[in-house]
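Thread: DGJ complex, take 2
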Amino acid sequence: MITYDEKQQVFHLSTNKISYLIQVEDGGLLAHLYFGKAVQSYHGQFRYPRADRSFSPNPPLAKDRLFSFDTVLQELPGNPGDFRVPALELLHESGSSVSDFRFEDYEIIQGKKSIPGLPATYAMEKEASTLIITLKDQLYDIYLDLFYTVFDNQAVLVRSSRLRNESAETLAIQKLASLSLDFASSSFELVHLSGSWSRERMIQREVVAPGTKALSSRRGSSSHHENPFAALVAPETTEAAGEAYGFSLVYSGNHETTIERDPYEQTRVTMGINSQQFSWSLEAGNDFYTPEAVLVYSDEGLNGMSQSFHYLFQHHLIRGRFKYEPRPVLANNWEATFFDFNEEKIMEIAKEAKELGAELFVLDDGWFGKRDADNSSLGDWYEYEGKLSRGLAQLSKEIHGLGLSFGLWFEPEMISEQSELYKKHPDWAFHVPGREKTIGRGQFVLDFSRADVRETVYQQMKAILDHVQVDYIKWDMNRNMTDVYSVLLKKEQQGETAHRYILGLYEFLERMTTEYPDILFESCSGGGGRFDPGMLYYMPQVWASDNTDAVSRMAIQYGTSLVYPVSTIGAHVAAVPNHQTGRTTSLETRGNVAMSGLFGYELDLTHLSDGEREELKEQTNFYKSHRQLIQYGTYYRLKSPFEGNEVSWQFVAPDQSEALVFYSRVLAEASAPFHVLKLTGLNPEKSYRIKDKVVGGDELMNIGLYIDTEAWGDYASQLIYIEAAD
Ligand code: DGJ
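Output below.
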């Protein structure tokens, strides 16, 4: 529900879980009052206190020295006199970068508008309400529309904005954040997800101290290194209890989040497109939309925050046929063969996969151009003649004949120097004329801001897809962007290139997913280098990491779950010693970890022993019979790999009729304590069957279980299934 109290000039956006209050302050400044646990109504007691703060200037319209933009909590700061991190920086033709936006108008609508050219959450009219507040610059006919949507029964609000240039001048947007949120005096800790290739989304937690902390990517993608996510939590907040505010950006390119604690213990969060190496030339009559930012409030700890993100992404972001479908068990040949395969080898693996219960076979890299190594053929999306003796269409047919569907790997945004495409169009790679290009994994980045480049790649892919039966595409992206310059853009537009690339990518994906609605897309960027809500809008699942080691994966999947639902997290059983870490873990643990996501195999199945074959078959059967619970159940983190030697999480059916618990004590301990695990999310009134006992849900949650770990050895784990007994 959204109301406007004309007398107090206060907007109240609310659901049964949250309230968000905005005040039109003196002089029309749009001030922020509150975001957090719901209040039924607001009576005006929380207006920003008046005080004369030295060195905090007073805006021209202030009646006295008691009001300053420098201290008041705001909605989209950028006006002069606020020395904190701005949400907006515009450069006028005069050379001035001063703006002064004030309240002009508002509108309340049912449902939610889409954002032209950008992925965004969606809702039907009866599911959400949207407030649009329009601000106007005091000097120019430049308008800022701020969009706020609340979703019924959810603890979520999403924000975005549009800048409209109705003046006669061309404006340079140097920064326009999707979100800016000010908190009154409070003590916070910051939780965020940092990492690198093969070590994505490691949870970091630190005190928010005076000054500014920036979390960002300038890599042209959302990156392995810093996910577009942050949370502010109370110092006492745990997984299970306490307040948490989560922020996530629906965007796949350069992003930045700043967290600033000011001298008055107020905290400001801004989030949006990275303003470094960005500018956008907004000509008269044009508008610019920011990506959308998601804000979540939880008073049920980090698990509560994650469940709100999961719900929103599952129901209001992911689209298409596969949104609620059980995701297939897949076998991928990458770690089995790398580039070294032929038709016989692929068919042998596929037959084994079928025997084990797989449903989809994915032919990874190496099937196109003359691709035998990673330094050639990107951009030549036609069959590698002779590598598959009877051709790709026939291979797909035979794989279908086995009763498996067929998937194919593409890396559409890239070009190899050794390729036919590069011979014809060397200028299609990002480059600065006259300079040598930087190379990454032996390849360059195609200028996807260009429609002609996109059209050529699209037609190449289409030729394959119209001729080979393809049910799944793994869309990869294996380097970050350098030499970001587009030869088709004017010099004053070069700061737009990285964002235009992402807009081009989104346009491509929109077109392809519309033309091929029956293909299941899995996003990948050297594993999880582009695991973000923007990609989820087009591709409902992501290969979470190139690291297939079960112990590393416990941390990667645990961190990923902070924001992303299990139905999006690709996880496969790989060979040991592991390719990335050299570690040897049991097949049981590899299976238990992979079964905690979208399960599959990533090893040479033709080399399994009889015992391993049997065990994998059992795992696959087990997974299939519980996959609804795993993929679409409510997910709880119980014990963090970032805090100790035990790791645990739990899936609970929405009606609490069953649950599955993953537990690992990572390193063996001599004379170990008898570890107790308390479950969560069950119905305290119900009895549950666990192993051969029937016990109360309240017992499992309040008293817990002793975990039997006597002679387990390193890296051991178990899955415990619990079912309602009555
Ligand atoms: C990186 C991906 O993450 C891998 O799974 C695999 O597809 C390779 N690329 C292929 O080059």
